[in-house]
Amino acid sequence: MEKRFMKLSDEDLAGASGGYAGPTFVYTFQQGDDLYQLATRYGATVRVLLELNNIQSASQIKPGTRLLIPQR
Questions:
Q1: Of 1, 27, 41, 46, which is least surrounded by CB within 10 A?
Q2: Distance (Å, rounded) from C-alpha 17 to C-alpha 10?
Q3: What is the pTM of this model?
Q4: What is the pLDDT of residues 1-35, one digit of tens each?
Q5: How many domains, the chain?
């Protein structure tokens, strides 16, 4: 299972929600991924990931969903 990452520029993030203005990368959610584990792996919280991606509930995230992840 290959994980795909893409770094975004400040211009790409201009419309990002959640109020986070730091550097991020795009993570493609895979079958078997768990939002809590992703948050822990990347030093974030589930709440930050949901807010940053303008998602109301973790149940909305399906394999193939692209998520902004804050960089440490």
A1: 1
A2: 13
A3: 0.69
A4: 455 544 544 444 444 445 566 889 999 999 999 99
A5: 1
Query: Residue 21: inside a domain, yes or no?
Result: no
Instruction: Specify whether the CB–CB gap between 55 and 48 falls below 8 A.
Output: no
CA distance 72 to 60: 25
Q: Is residue 50 part of a domain?
A: yes
Indicate whether 46 belongs to any domain: yes
22: Cβ–Cβ under 8 A, 6 or more apart, which residues? 70, 71
* Tokens read off for 11: 């211009």
**Cα–Cα distance for residue pair 69/72, rounded to 1 Å:** 9
Is 2 within the bounds of a domain? no
